[in-house]
Amino acid sequence: MNAKKNFFFILIFLIILFSYQIYSYNILKTVKIYNSKYYQLNLLFSKNIQKFDISANAKYLDIYFDNNVYNDFKFYLPVSVGNNRIRINLRNTISSYKVKKYKNVINLILYKRDLKKEKKGAEKNQNKISKTKIDKKNNSEKGKIRITKNKDIKPKSSEKKKIKKWNIIIDAGHGGRDPGAVGPGGIQEKGIVLSIAKKVYRILQKYNNFKLIMTRKTDSFVKLKNRAKIANNANGDLFVSIHANAIRGYKRRRKTKGIETYFLAEASSDRAREVAIRENASLKYEMKNYKNESMIKNILFDMADSQYKKESSEVAYSIQTNMINSIKSVDRGVQQAPFYVLRMVSMPSVLVEVGFVSHPTEVKYLLSDSYQNKIAQTIVKGIIEYFNKRGKIYAKK
Fold first, then answer.
1. Pick from 73, 75, 100, 101: which is nearest to 89 by CA?
2. C-alpha span between 356 and 366 (Å, rounded)
3. Most C-beta atoms within 10 A of its C-beta, which of 19, 72, 202, 355?
4. What CATH number does residue 57 fall under?
5. Phi then psi for 14, rounded to 5 degrees?
6. CA-CA distance, 69 to 342, in Å (whole number)?
7. CATH code of the domain in which 268 resides
8. Which residues of 44-58 are buried (b: 16+ CB within 10 A; e: fewer)?
9. Helix H segments across 174-269?
10. How far apart are the first and last CA of the chain?
11. Quick one: what percent of the chain has pLDDT higher than 90?
12. d(CA 259, CA 83)
């Protein structure tokens, strides 16, 4: 009997091990090369790499895979491995990179910035900009030349200080084959939040300090990792994801309504955890080996706090306060939860739940154009307040 039990457990172990090998990339070996011009990293995986993407900015280089990656490793720059991504902290020290794939090997070369050369170039440019006015004195005997310093010269209008531009990424949740939350009569979250996101975009266009990017402008499906990639490639200063809430159960649906704003951290309550699971369920539309809700829990709830937690919480409180002061709705407060899309972006980020599509009355407001305008205006007020702390915001005349 014991022999049968042992055989059974060994068989289960082998099946799990085999599945682990099929659905993941295990890092078997790393080769690191360092010299004065570049860092080189060779990664040997347990199986051939089918597909991968790269997203890079001055701060980070992210390599995204079609399946999860396992085994941490050390490099000359800080590295984190989690889920389907390897992140290298570039520390603003890299000027460019090259990457090649050979079956189950990735070869990455990171070229260092030449700080001395950059400094010399900056000094040359400064000398060109810094003009001196030379006046010849009418003295034929000595022929002296008087040099007038820069402070005596008024700068041209083209040389005036440029206004600081902030990059804001506006993310309308779900879309395409992912409807998001579904309310009475089949009303879908994806349409409501796209309409509000477009209104936020149009209002922010009135300010000349902002460069605006939307992750989707139509009813199209955009993977969560691609939304993050769009934001990171734009060197975003703020990521605002707009969603609508929902809840299960007939009695709870009729009672539960209101507005809440989230930033990335471990779940602050069971309800926050429930919201994160529902919003992260979009992963089932992009994961080949998606099985059930428990898979999302296992992947996501071991995530560490964001390094932008302080800034993200400031934005969240600013948006939530402005929304509640202007809109007659239940204040569900500022919450924290491990949203997948917020974890992937390298900037302060928030997720705004503008109301419950599952509530029979609130969903009617959410479909109203005037109510959507109010929501958009208050979200913008919160954003302006946050950026005003970092530099004056100028509205277009």
1. 75
2. 8
3. 355
4. 2.60.40.790
5. -65, -40
6. 19
7. 3.40.630.40
8. ebeeebeebeebbbe
9. 189-204, 224-233, 250-255
10. 85
11. 38
12. 30
Give the Å distances, CA to CA, from 387 to 188, 189, 256, 354, 355.
32, 29, 32, 21, 25
- 353/209 same-domain check: yes
pLDDT tens digit sequence for 283-295? 555 555 545 544 4
Cβ neighbours of residue 40 closer than 8 Å, sequence gap 6 or more: 31, 32, 33, 34, 107, 108, 109, 110
Residue 119, domain member (yes or no): no
CA-to-CA dists, residue 342 to 47, 115, 197, 242, angstroms: 30, 33, 17, 12
Give 209-256 pLDDT, tens digit per residue. Answer: 999 999 999 999 999 989 999 999 999 999 999 999 999 888 888 999
Classify residue 316 by burial, with Cβ atoms within 10 Å: 0-12, 13-18, 19+: buried
Residue 3 maps to a domain? no
State whether 135 and 224 are in the same domain.
Answer: no
219 and 306 inside one domain: yes
Q: Are 356 and 362 in contact (CB under 8 A)?
A: yes
Distance of CA 294 to the CA centre of its chain: 24
User: What HEC string does 26-79 produce?
Assistant: EEEEEEEEECCCEEEEEEEECCCCCCEEEEECCCEEEEEECCEEECCCCCCCCE
Percentages (nearest 5) of helix, strand, coil residues in the chain? 40, 30, 35
Q: Do 308 and 366 fall within a single domain?
A: yes
Q: What is the pLDDT of residue 162?
A: 66
Are β-strands 349-356 and 68-70 bridged in parallel, bridged antiparallel, or unpaired?
A: unpaired
- One domain for residues 151 and 284: no
Structure tokens at 230: 């769009």
Q: Which of 50, 81, 112 is the last residue of a domain?
A: 112
Q: Kindly state the percentage of the chain with pLDDT values over 70.
A: 73
Return the biggest CA–CA distance within the chain: 119
Half-sphere exposure of 337 (CA within 13 A, CB side): 25
Q: Are 107 and 99 in contact (CB under 8 A)?
A: yes
Total structural domains within the chain = 3
Provide the domain limits for residue 49: 25-112
Instruction: Please check whether residue 200 lies inside any domain of the structure.
Output: yes
Of 148, 235, 166, 222, residue with least CA distance to 393: 166
Torsion, Cα 363 369 372 374, to 10 degrees, reads -120
Specify whether 153 is located in the same domain as 170: no
145 shares its domain with 275 = no
174 and 153 co-located in one domain: no
